[in-house]
Amino acid sequence: MQKQTKTPVFQNSDGTWGHLTKTVNPLIYTIEYGRHTGFSSREEAEESYKRSLASYQDQLSKLKKERDMPFTFSEYLDYWLNDVCAQGSNGSRTLVQKQWTINLIIQPHLHKDILLGCVTPDYLNKVLESCQAYCCNGGYYAYKLLHSALKHARVNNCLPDIDFQQIRHYPEPPGNPVFYTPKQLRTFLTAASNSNHYLEIQLALFCGLTPGEILGLKYSDFKQQEQIITIQRICSLNDSGKNCQLKKLEGTKQNRSLKIPFFLFPELSTRRKENRKLLARYPSATEYKSYLCLGPIAKIKSTVTLGAALKTITTETGLPRLNMRDLRYMFARFLLEQNFSLETVSGILGHTKQTTTLAFCNRIPCTDPEVGAVVAGSLDPVLGAGKKEGKNL
After folding, report:
1. Full-model pTM
2. Is the pLDDT of residue 124 over 50?
């Protein structure tokens, strides 16, 4: 299987050099991937690669002319993305998600390329199987994209009359996240501002933190002058929901520092005053006094408590039900709308693998590009919700 590589020239563990190869098989109209190794220097490998590439391009050009087919399967996906989708796209985020699916899920996992007109259900099923093995629901994301791309190819007579029923269907993942319209989000935030859990809601929606990361926060994790928060631990609850386990994140990708909106600091100050009053009522409850998410008996809140708060808010406002994870999805949607790279999004969300970010972001719909305006504006959750004054994170 071809692996995603930044350069076609590489060094082996024994110190020798090599390069990737593409070879045309004219008998079955395919492009087979391989490696040529054993070179003593990088320069020698690069020269060999240039000769190999020129030979491949000449062979491929002859094969295309002989079969009267302008594209290989891989080339058509690039053409469809850059020439077809770019013209009809309703936003750059749509293209970015399709580009990620092609470049990071489909292309690196082709066992071989093939002339577009020679594509078969068996070939496509092998591609989808490799994509599914690569990341969670990779088969579905590849299937969804290929359905659109191959439909275009079929309409434009670039694809033979194959039986699409033979292509394995990968169903849509269950439990799609909830996304609010700008109007719904403003209504939600106005109601949430009167809740005892407003700070937790803000940290999920405007910082993209998980419930466990939020519940594990201490006051010392916030640096007002630098406008930074550092995620250093995660809180998980046992079955009873009364006690919590705190896990340190040092040395992991979840252990990260994020630039956060300034309006969180006055809210943090208000929470500190509220918690001091709470601790005064429970003078013996000093175990969690440095933590900011304290419940009515001066212990760290539970995810169940946060979920109940969201249920109350959405019920009273008549909004669709959501959970804390949905707020994190809305934050990720804002990042995509601001054209952040996959690596940056992955780092901000604290994902340990980029495949997790791929699966996460692919569940975000590519419609209504104005939804992120509420989050992207001044980041003032109520008063400035409709403004667009930059994208400071």
Report:
1. 0.73
2. yes
